[in-house]
Amino acid sequence: MLEMAPTKQAAAWLESLAQTLAAGDETAAANLFVDDCYWRDLLTFTWNVTTMEGREAIAAMLEATLATTKPTAWQITGEATSDEGTIEAWFTFETAVASGQGILRLRDGRCRTLFTAMTDLKGFEESKGSDRPLGVRHKADPERETWSEARARETRELGASEQPYCLVIGGGQGGIMLGARLRQLGVPTIVIEKNARPGDSWRNRYRTLVLHDPVWYDHLPYIPFPENWPVFTPKDKMGDWLEMYTRVMELNYWVATKCLSASYDETQKEWTVVVDRVGRQVTLKPKHIVFATGAYGPPRKIDLAGAEQFKGELLHSSHYASGEKFRGRKVAVIGAASSGHDVCVDLWESGADVTMIQRSPTTVVKSDTLMEVGFEIFSESALERGITTEKADMIVASTPFALVPKGQRALYEVIKARDAGFYDRLRASGFAIDFGDDETGLLMKAYRTGSGYYIDVGASDLIIDGKIGIRSGVAIKSLTKNGILFEDGSELEADAIIACTGYQSMNENVAALVSREVADKVGPCWGLGSGVKGDPGPWQGELRNMWKPTAQEALWFHGGNLALSRFYSKYVALQIKARMEGVQTPVYGKPSNS
Question: Can you name one GO molecular function term for this protein (predicted)?
């Protein structure tokens, strides 16, 4: 077998897998994998977002799921590739209720990683391509209802005489993308947003905010950005795009609407959700609710001794909009991650005398470096090689989280060598740099804690040049009347203090709107259980509670950056659609509520 061409080797292995699964021989199927193997599944076998690590875990999963999954029609698509002894191939397959695709990687004739992902529910596929709706009825009819009349009726009735099947709480990028996915699957959905307009969650941020990720990484589903869209999107332009998107994708999107409370009836299998819609209380009865509040919950506010005596302004970054009112004033910014850097730049550009207070080391990566070596498959050159955003998404998703650190560690060795002079100058300014507990850099910090990193788009040069002051390596003892007193006895005068101290877990929103009991039952969101500070074990293998069933029936979490929201919104929508249509969804694996 090892002497065959890569595509033939991949096809032979896939055929062996198909035969063992058809025979119901879980042990034989597991033996097709190497010892240190991984199978990551998005819904097809497990109705979960989960990774099986090792042969025993794979065999156990198959023993529990094969009878209902009934996988068939395994087929290699395209040509396999071979790189340093690893053969990679894409394939399609079917289950009893869905179609799927995946990626396999072989080493010495056996599988190292297998990735399977649902593409469609049989009989409930999206109406697109050759199956797109006609849009008109070619027949004279005095009772004809136009498109605008139908939309007006739907908007008028949904949430009043008819109830949504799903309520999405949070109308930022994540809620909007999920709303679009659910819409295309025919799931009656309302997305609620506390702001006055779609996109205000971006517009209301500080003046100079620009996306740090490139355009190829940030597309929304169904409607990609046009080819002349800037590489890095300004916040207000992003807000306008989201507003356009909600209209074009025909979302039932309630602005100026705040969720007041939610409770679940275990008997009726239904939520009762009270919202304030433009000052009027409305009670909704959805079957499912999705918290789509980014990747975070309420602002994390730190207790500062002496805060009551500080005569200046003290605010969290979530309430910071512009540095204009701080012109000519001394401002201390607590926090040295992305928001801390961006706020410092905005303050400096507005004419403030700004000092960053760094409480722990930060991973910093130059934007142009990351563009060249970190976003290789999300780029114009990738498109020229046939790697679309959708294909790149699958490539990223096909790598189990347990294997990501090795590749990231190697990447950051390249980055550290490439930008050694930059890091030397930044350290010399007094700024503390790290690359994570295990030298795996920005991406692993993002997955593990969602904090502690910055993609440099200009702030680092200001720090190096002394235009942004830096206080690092000494803790805050207390606030004083006129500023900050540090543990070493030094003081920093400040007219205002802005705390860029991040956000709590999304389950804290559940505590506020549902109950503390349900929030604790569900457990925290985000993090892999890697054992580093802020991400305690046990190892999860997946991001806690994100995009999959939780310990509370009919309660979901959806969010992350634009790329994660784009990709995983599909799988949240498929899970909810299946339940609406009565498709059996036996979930394999326990909720990640620890």
Answer: monooxygenase activity
CATH code of 463's domain: 3.50.50.60
Say if 130 falls within a structural domain. Answer: no
Give the model confidence (pLDDT) of 512-524 as tens digits: 999 999 999 999 9
150-157 contacts at long range (C-beta below 8 A, 24 or more positions apart): 151/250, 154/252, 155/252
Range from 17-26, 186-195, 292-301, 368-377 carrying the lowest mean pLDDT: 292-301
Q: Is residue 132 part of a domain?
A: no
Residue 333 exposed, middle or buried by CB count within 10 Å (0-12, 13-18, 19+): buried
The one-letter amino acid code at 36 reads: D
CB 352 within 8 A of CB 329: yes
Sheet holding 491-493, edge to edge: 476-479, 483-486, 491-493
Q: State the pLDDT confidence band at 593, using cuts at 50, 70 and 90.
A: low
Per the listing, tokens 């074990």 go with 537
pTM of the predicted structure, to 2 decimals = 0.95
- Taking alpha carbons only, the member of 542, 534, 539, 340 closest to residue 436 is 534
Calpha distance 83→6 (Å, rounded): 10
318 and 382 housed in the same domain: yes
CB count in 10 Å sphere of residue 539: 12
Rounded Cα–Cα distance for residues 249 and 573 (Å): 15
Helix ranges (DSSP H) in 449-556 = 459-464, 507-513, 516-522
Average pLDDT over residues 403-412: 96
Distance CA 457, CA 467 (A): 15
Distance, CA of 99 to CA of 120 (rounded, Å): 5
How far is residue 177 from each of residues 196, 210, 444, 572, 575, measured CA to CA in Å? 18, 20, 25, 11, 15
Residue 315, φ and ψ in degrees, nearest 5: -145, 155
Task: Work out the widest C-alpha separation in the chain, in whole angstroms.
Answer: 85
Q: Are residues 421 and 410 in the same domain?
A: yes
Whether residue 508 contacts residue 296, with contact meaning beta carbons closer than 8 Å, is answered with no
Q: Are strands 288-291 and 483-486 parallel, antiparallel or unpaired?
A: unpaired
Going 357 to 296 to 326 to 483, the CA torsion angle's sign is: negative
Per-residue model confidence (pLDDT) at position 122:
98
